[in-house]
Design brief:
The chain is an alpha/beta fold and about 400 residues long. Helix content is about 45%, strand content about 15%. It folds into 4 domains: about 5-55, no CATH class; about 60-110, Up-down Bundle (Single alpha-helices involved in coiled-coils or other helix-helix interfaces), CATH 1.20.5; about 110-320, P-loop containing nucleotide triphosphate hydrolases (Rossmann fold, 3-Layer(aba) Sandwich); about 350-390.
Length: about 400
């Protein structure tokens, strides 16, 4: 593969593509803008040009855990991104490397404010995250955003591309955005999000924001890995009842009604009042802290400063009471439990004996020879048999 200038031989000459001037040259005979420019009579120089002007791309050198740790602690974004890729990988060869990286950077973690942000689709989560992130960057803070995307059922990759929807924040030198496919994880939080938070903290980020999918699944996993849990709501979408029924409001440390601007501002203020009435009768998500509803406009920026003020007040309050440290201990314990559960699940389902049983079950289910309940019992018996043999 080659970068920069590329020439393509055609019957009419050579079309030259210059990567530094992508849209200045319309393709002859068309109305569309193209990066291809005709260079008549240059056919004889194609091979010479490619040989002299092209720069060969080389593969990235393999890094040791110590290399990753040094790069992360020195704030190298490229190394941080590669380390996150290792952590997110399900390949067995990357597990030990990932855990060694975590062990090396662990003493340098814990210094950030961890914020979880969720809300129904259409609530403007990415816009709100960008507005908050830019505000914090202007205050001299370093902000990392873990934008968890829904996973494609086909490619297993991210669907929404949150990074492309936070253009201004992604360009800011004090911000780091990492979109990650949810992988079907409950609540839209990737299995490795906790480790990714630690990597970002070690890289020197002051605030780590975890933006979840917000598709109505349980957000308990988010609550268990962040210090402050923020629910973003909107008016006119039944959010009041929907949020209450699903228990999301009960886990919130703050509710912000977004899109409080223009003609919608009065409706947003009314929704805020309704939320505060409901919150008055609910048990606070965090002991010693009163959850309140607020309004914000991520579009205009009005109320974004108050959003950060609420988060700051929460951290000060919980640190004074000693609850902040207790929450961090609870987060660590939850991490251990979830990691152990993931390991057991992968170990069991990856066992050839169990894999063969699953294949047999799938075949019998397809032909209708067995009911789902009996199929599940069959697999469970196989697992029990495997455990007893050990």
């Amino acid at each position: 593969m080659y970068r920069d200038n590329i020439q393509i031989l055609t019957a009419n000459g050579v079309y030259m593509k210059n990567s530094t001037n992508i849209s200045n040259h319309p393709l002859p005979g068309t109305e569309e803008t193209s990066a291809l420019k005709v260079v008549p009579g240059a056919a004889s120089s194609v091979q010479h040009y490619a040989h002299k002007q092209s720069t060969p791309m080389t593969a990235k050198a393999a890094l040791t855990a110590a290399d990753y740790a040094r790069g992360i602690l020195s704030g190298e974004r490229g190394i941080l991104s590669r380390a996150i890729t290792v952590i997110e990988s399900n390949a067995a060869k990357h597990f030990d490397l990932g855990q060694e990286i975590i062990s090396l950077i662990l003493p340098h973690t814990g210094g950030s404010v961890r914020v979880g942000l969720t809300g129904v689709p259409g609530a403007g989560k990415s816009t709100a995250v960008e507005a908050l992130g830019l505000y914090l960057c202007r205050q001299g803070k370093k902000v990392a955003v873990l934008a968890v995307d829904p996973t494609s059922a086909l490619s297993k990759g991210s669907i929404l591309g949150d990074k492309t929807r936070m253009v201004n924040l992604s360009r800011h030198p004090s911000a780091f955005i990492r979109p990650s496919p949810s992988g079907g994880a409950l609540g839209g939080v990737t299995r490795k999000s906790r480790e990714t938070i630690l990597l970002c903290e070690a890289a020197g980020f002051d605030i780590v924001i975890v933006e979840t999918v917000g598709v109505g699944q349980s957000e308990v996993s988010v609550r268990a890995m962040v210090d402050f849990f923020l629910v973003l709501a909107i008016t006119g979408a039944g959010d009041e009842l929907q949020g209450i029924k699903k228990g999301i409001i009960e886990m919130a440390d703050a509710v912000f009604v977004n899109k409080a601007d223009g003609d919608n501002k009065q409706r947003a203020l009314a929704a805020k009042a309704e939320y505060n009435q409901v919150l008055h009768y609910l048990r606070p998500a965090t002991e010693g802290w009163t959850t309140m509803a607020h309004t914000v406009s991520a579009l205009t920026g009005e109320g974004v400063d108050n959003m950060w003020a609420v988060i700051t007040a929460f951290c000060e309050n919980t640190k004074e009471s000693g609850l902040f440290d207790e929450l961090r201990k609870t987060q660590a314990l939850s991490w251990v439990k979830n990691s152990a559960e993931d390991y057991v699940k992968n170990k069991v389902l990856g066992n050839p004996f169990i894999s063969a049983a699953m294949a047999e079950v799938e075949q019998n289910l397809a032909t209708g020879a067995i009911s789902p309940a009996k199929a599940a019992k069959f697999v469970m018996d196989k697992i029990d048999s495997l455990l007893e043999r050990r």
